[in-house]
Amino acid sequence: MTGEHHGSRRADRTESASTPSPRISLGRVVRAAGRHVRRDPALALPFAAVGAIAAIADRLRLLDPIPATTLGPFSGTVSVRYAIVPRGVARTGRHLGAVPSLELPYLAWTVGLEALLVVAVGVAGYVTIARTLGVPVRGRPRSLARYLAFASGLTVSLQVLGLVVSDPAGVLVSLVALLIVLQLDVRLALAPAYLVAGRGIASAVRASVAASRGIGWTLAGLVVAVGLAAWALAHVPVVGSLLSTAVVATIQSVALGVVVRWRAETSGGPPVRPATSRRS
Question: How far is residue 232's CA from residue 227's CA, in Å, rounded to a whole number?
Answer without folding.
Answer: 9
